[in-house]
């Protein structure tokens, strides 16, 4: 009985110290920032043109049926920061893809089952987790800059 209680107490102590350290180091920040937000609520300068919401992508098909770009708050804040810096230099960011549901990823992977180009369906990864963007740059009027390849080439 005493042994069990002591083990339990040790468990609580380890948990307490672990949590205390994480709070002090700000590691819980990510959890607080993990909610999803609309990209355009954090910056109006972004141009949103979700390619997989149209047939104008490498599949030739509509992959999902929404046109609002969302992602995790922390990632959107970083994108907004980059957008601010680029605007001062005369550029805007055009977003071709942000959060992508696992069902959409499954569709992409079925069409192109090459994990070096399309990630395997996994809610904890990249677009499916809401922490990745497919982007290009435009001038301030919204004209795309010439890039070495087109989207997804
Ligand atoms: C398909 C391409 N736009 C892409 O997003 N690839 C990465 C690897 C992904 O599927 O997460």
From TrEMBL:
GO terms for biological process: cell wall organization; proteolysis. One of its GO terms (molecular function) is metallopeptidase activity. Pfam families: Peptidase_M15. InterPro entries: A_A_dipeptidase (IPR000755), Zn_M74/Hedgehog-like (IPR009045). It comes from the Bacteria. It catalyses: D-alanyl-D-alanine + H2O = 2 D-alanine. Keywords: Cell wall biogenesis/degradation, Dipeptidase, Hydrolase, Metal-binding, Metalloprotease, Protease, Zinc. This is D-Ala-D-Ala dipeptidase. It comes from Ligilactobacillus agilis DSM 20509.
């Amino acid at each position: 009985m005493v042994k069990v209680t002591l083990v339990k107490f040790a468990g609580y102590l380890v948990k307490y110290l672990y949590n205390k350290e994480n709070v002090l180091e700000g590691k819980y920040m990510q959890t607080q920032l993990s909610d999803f937000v609309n990209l355009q609520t954090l910056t109006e300068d972004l141009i949103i043109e979700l390619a997989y919401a149209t047939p104008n992508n490498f599949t030739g098909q509509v992959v999902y049926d929404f046109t609002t770009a969302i992602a995790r708050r922390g990632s959107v804040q970083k994108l907004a920061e980059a957008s601010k810096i680029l605007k001062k230099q005369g550029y805007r960011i055009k977003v071709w893809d942000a959060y992508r549901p696992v069902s959409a990823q499954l569709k992409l992977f079925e069409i192109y089952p090459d994990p070096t180009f399309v990630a395997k369906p996994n809610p904890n990864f990249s677009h499916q987790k809401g922490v990745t963007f497919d982007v290009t740059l435009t001038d301030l009027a919204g004209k795309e800059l010439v890039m070495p390849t087109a989207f997804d080439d």
